[in-house]
Amino acid sequence: MSEKPFCIFVVDDDALLRLVIVDQLQGHNYQIHEFANGADCLAALDLQPNLILLDIEMPGQSGIEVCRQIRAAGNDEVQVMFVSAHDDLEILLTAFDAGGNDFIPKNAKKEVLLRKVELAIETEQQKRNLRSQLDYARQTAFTAMSSLGETGAILHFLRTSFQCRTPEQLGSLIIDTLPQYGASGLVKLADAFGEHDFGPEPVCSALERSILTYVTKLGRIYQAGDRLVLNFPHVTLLVTGLDVNDPDAIGRLRDHLAILVEGASARMEAMVSEQQRQLQTKVRLESIRELNALLSEIERNQQANHVQLVNLSEQHRSNMENAFVHLGLTDSQEFLLHGYVDELTTQLDQLFDKDNQLALRLHQILEKQHALLAGGEDAGPT
Fold it and tell me: Which end of the chain, C or N, has fewer beta carbons within 10 A?
């Protein structure tokens, strides 16, 4: 119950009855006002009574009519307890239809009157408690709906972040998501090629970049006044302009943004892994190209050496045939020497053929590996 005393109006044209009722209510810290008619009672409603003990049968306006006017004026909180010598069903139904809350017969015992007043006080307290519970329920429902909306924004961010292929796309997505929480801020993303800063404007100023560099040295989650910093691997988020008068909202925002930044961190980790894979693939491809170039050079040298050897063999054969004429060799001797030369030429050809076959097989293997690596490079990031 509030600190204000429980206010009771006693309305009856019978002064003696009013005196009796007031006397019975004395000593209970009630604020009591007496009225001889309904008009005076209606004129004093700005005193905000908690309970009106209202006689039904009065000259001029009856208690029933007074009650109707009280309710018609929007005074639904005040309790009206009718006081009458008549308690037949028709009068009771009319009284309650007019907006009455209770009924007590005239000349009722003091214990009955006091118990009725206590019940009225308990009823008012119950209404106050119910109103408080209703306000709490409404606030809880509002908070839950707000939280659902904020959670929905997080889910949308996470789904959309899967489609981001570059830090620029992810940084812009984070900046665009912050206004859904009534916030704004700055973002720093780090990948295999360096750092990328993002803010509400297309290009971050030198001061904004300096601030982002500084806050990366703070803890995982750091808050000072209306500023909130979240540091995760590859991602730093600085949020400004928090409502310091609403700590519950700041708590929810901190939880939601922590999930957002953690999701962005996971996406950046995937990007960094893909960048490193592409760098490794590029290095391997360059090595394959160098090997292919070297192999091609070896093949060309082998072919040139083979042609030169054939020419030398033919030249050597011709020189020997010319020499045979002057040496005076027999046919058997010439035939024997020709056989030596032919055998040597044949053996050299076989060696070159084996070398060419090995070089061709190696070239084919390298070509296949080059094709596989090139295909992986063209696939792009996942």
Answer: C
